[in-house]
Amino acid sequence: MCIRINRPRRSPGRRLLYGGLALGAAVAVAACGSSSGTAASPASSAPAGASAAAAATVSTKSVPDVGTVLVNAQGQTLYLLTSERGGKITCTASNGCTQAWPEITLPRGMTAATAGSGVHSSLLGTVTDASGHREVTYNHWPLYTFSGDPGAGVAKGQGLTSFGGTWYVLNASGNPVTSSQAQPGSSPSAGGGYGY
Question: Domain segments of the chain: what residues?
Answer without folding.
Answer: 47-177
